[in-house]
Protein 1
Amino acid sequence: MLAGGQSRRLGRDKAVEPVGGQPLIRRVLDRLSRVCDELVVVVADQARGGALPLGPGHRVALDRYPGGGSLGGIFAGLATMRQDWGLVVACDMPFLNLDLLRYLRSQRPGYDAVVPVLAGRPEPTHALYSRDCLPFIEDKLKVGSLKISGFYDRVRVNYVPEAAVARFDPEYLSFFNVNSPEDLARALSLVAAGR
């Protein structure tokens, strides 16, 4: 899970913002715990890790390329984890669809990455990556090329079409993230409606 952002648009730390009676990050971690054997939270520094309400089974990974954005976070998470594959999501995605995540996980054989595509664009922070991606990600980080999909041409990517995603999540709520006060209000409204 990527949790290194600075929440500039919201104006306060969105990871600890209450959503559904718990900090947003805990809501996301609780969902992930149902589909992942290992939970790694990537943060910019130790102070950030210590400030988050994490449980005893959650591991913290520090950015190895400060300023590397989400690509650097993906690298840090993959390099820290013990598993061969990592599911990458952000800490501000409160409506992850577990059936969709399980489906994406089933699409790994023969590939190095599994990436959903919505409106013709990949969703790289709601995707799975194998550790085989690490050297290609690091190559991009070393030259300051931070676009996540910038290394995709070097690995085998299974692009999951929008129609397949819609079978599990027709409203695409899995991809909704809390960036602004308006997003937070929508998230609270959706939770109140039982989502």
Protein 2
Amino acid sequence: MKALLITIDGPSGAGKTTVSRRMAERLGYTYVDTGALYRAVAWVALSRGCGVDDETLSEICENLVLEFKRGPSGPRLYANGEDVTDSLRTPQITMMASAVSARPVVRTYLLGVQRELAKGGGVVFEGRDMGTVVFPEADIKFYLDAQPETRARRRHSELAEKNQKVTLPEVGAAMKKRDEDDSTRALAPLKPAADAIVVDSTSMGIEAVVETMMAHIEHS
């Protein structure tokens, strides 16, 4: 069977990360969390106390080496040799990542990184514009969504497990703002690709979502 290039887009809290990981495991494919790439750029900017002007971001990207390496619990992301995986899911990084992802200089840099990772297929890319902008020629495109309240509860639970002190209303408000920012920006707005398979996970567990997607893949 041909090694496929699969994209899974959608808003935060829809279950993309867990579903993408499971899909990759089932298929024996490589999993790539593209959101983590943007978060890594945001992490560098914040750690330096930098703004998000194009000149600063251009300098960061020119000197940034991003690598995924296998770890005991899954892929780990390294920025210039430093494992930044566990530092990327704070609310501050989330909002900064949304800001830097709208900058053409960052998108151009990461476009090259992502397309290099896709060579040869056998990859599941999780993101927000994978099927619309980065890989419009992808073999199979999914758009995973859920009701805002459901997504907020899921994200709040994730943060609580990591001992991050944030209330459910705060998570919901931050998520609403990011949804608005990402879906209304002029450059690569968040939306399903015209040929994407839309899956609503509001009332579905992870395994049900994975099985639904696997059925589409097997019949493609």
Protein 3
Amino acid sequence: MPLEKYRYIVVEGPIGVGKTSLTQRLADHVGAKTLLEKPQENPFLVRFYQDSARYALPTQLFFLFQRINEVRELAQMDLFGSQTIADYLFDKDTLFARLTLNEDEFKLYQSIYHSLAPQASTPDLVIYLQASTDTLIERVQRRGFRYESNISDEYLVKLAKSYGEFFHHYDAAPLLIVNSDNLNFVDNDEDFTLLMERIQNMRGVREFFSLGA
């Protein structure tokens, strides 16, 4: 099976970068299970984009408990008995918290997060998708999800910067950093094949892939 040495793969990146689409294509290609974020199930998300100061904490806590319940369930079902590809990394949950919560809220969030984090498994490989903020803004607008209709360009810029800083220091698992500005892994078979080859040929713990690299 292609990529069989990676039993647990995570695809990550900011809103609009294409992580869910790539996760689904990878899973279909190798016959893996998927573990997907479900933002549409968060009852606070639309209100967060309308009034972030008021709804940041309940939005963040809902996602935190949603994600840890899914990760815990996978561990109980013998995660490594089958290949799993996820479109989120539990460790990055703090990224959004730092960006959206005030000081007191962040302290409360941290106490809850640190009590839950040991239950999360470490991936065998993380694929971090990068894109310019112009690309992210265009992709978010183009897909037109209702709960994203009030996302500001400023928020996407801050989020992309926070992702870059987070993965600059990330070393918990092997990391493939992919510049996706000029790559279309869903509709372009050649791009997808190039990515698969790069993943299979990884030798280091941190590598970079972009068109022409």
